[in-house]
Automatic annotation (TrEMBL):
Coiled coil (UniProt feature): none
Keywords noted in UniProt: Signal
Name the record gives this protein: T9SS type A sorting domain-containing protein
Listed InterPro entries: Haem_d1_sf (IPR011048), LVIVD (IPR013211), Secre_tail (IPR026444)
Species this protein is from: Eiseniibacteriota bacterium
Pfam family, one: LVIVD
Signal sequence, start to end: 1-24
Amino acid sequence: MRPARIFTALGALLTVLCSPPPSAIGAGNPMTLVGTLAPWPAGQYSNVAADATRHVAYLGSYDDQGVAVIDTRDPANPILSDRLSTHITSELLTSDSADLDRVGRYLAVSHQTWSAPSAFEGISVYDIGTDPYHPSLLRRIAIPGGVHTVQIDPEVESGRPYAYANSEGNLKVTIVNILTGATLSQYASSEGIGCVPPPPYCQGFNFAHEGFIQRHPRSGRVLDYVSYWDSGLRIVDVTDPANPIEVGAFDYNFFTNGLTSGHYAAPTPSANWVYLEDEIGLLETGGVHVLDTSGCDGSSYCTPTLVGGWHINGHPVQGAALNALIHSGKFVPAIFAAFKRAFTFDAHNLDVRGENELLAANYAMGIRLIDTSNKTAPVEAAFYLPNANESDACKQDCGFNTRLTWGSYFGSDGRIYASDLGRGLFIVEERVRGAAHAAAPAGQSAYDAAGMSAGEGTRGSGSGVRLRAVPGEGFAFSLTTSREGPVRIAVYDIQGRLVSARDLGALPAGVHSVSLTPRALDGRSPSRGIYFAQVESGSGTATVKFVH
């Protein structure tokens, strides 16, 4: 969201006509807030990197206010423990911290100039191994053109001490050694960088926006899945970091695919699928493409296949005021106020859990959990709209002063850690399963129709409760608890909507038979299909998938 690029694009698009959006509100299964923190007043926060095991989160800034180090040992009451300054060159020559990444004992922070062109551009590398609440600066690595996003190699502690820096200034991926500070190589899209074709025929703009590093589970090659804006997805073999080689691409051709902006790409653990997200910002709104990459292992050049996609429901265009002005074709002062409604309904950063769950930060529409069991037609399973910390949010003197969820990520504790540009850090839980999700088999979703056999139960948070569906008996279950206490059971459909619920009162320890009337709360009979039951008790929680 660099201002110069935004307004250049705005000027080029003033003659494009769009229809106003229908009204829509998040529907389905809302998540539950655990805790939140706006580290300082009028913050303009960027991405978050959380370590749920060590109970700490790092929150960057899309201005020069620095990186917040947040103690999450009490997730309901996170507190600021340190602040990493981005006044690097001097107190007057300042930089931002638009992105950060954490792997093992290392934290990397990206920097672009903020107050003046002569401020520091590059990355800062911190050691968080000894004291994660007070990171120790290892070094700063200058990268001309600045760094918008940065990723640490997932094998950084196993012989690959590399970081991958993506730039809106030099338009390339720069690979550096974080232990020596040496620049090893740069990669640029084979389609070209910057304005493509060259002026005056420019129809697209190509730059490296984000990367996702993963060793391919079959070929063993280390691949960087680079979202390269109008150049789409670029798959780069970085097994040898000194010699990156492009080995695949899903190209955004302006004339065939429309105006798109590859912003974030995330492969599944099998590498058979890649979710590619667009941040369009003006006029239309960006969603997520589902690409089949089963033939892309780095051994030969490949072209992923588009098989499906997901888009926030009810918002095909950005704010109505902005679209009305663009529709009018009049470049008037009011357009600058209306511009605050740009970048409103785009999907933004992504995260994956197993093969069939996708987490999307969707700007004004908050956190969206998406079930991708059907890759051709993903469905939303749960959502959360960050609304807290309003008294600390920037009101007027900032670029964006509405809810803009920047990133959301699965934590190892079963919670979700998210950042909002104006409202800070949010820690939430999925209401259907809450913390019980950690009990699902590794790499599978509790919503995964292919990953859990019908009627198969899970042990949830706490080890003293089991739940099993009784085949052929509608909403009938066998429940085992390890101690006496109150018990509640609820049934949800595949989209996370509550179908039926019952408080069972205090039950003694032991095995119990439970049945619910197979009728939804609105009085209608539920249709045939896949459902999930969750039990909550003093012994813990558990979830089971079954077919009705």
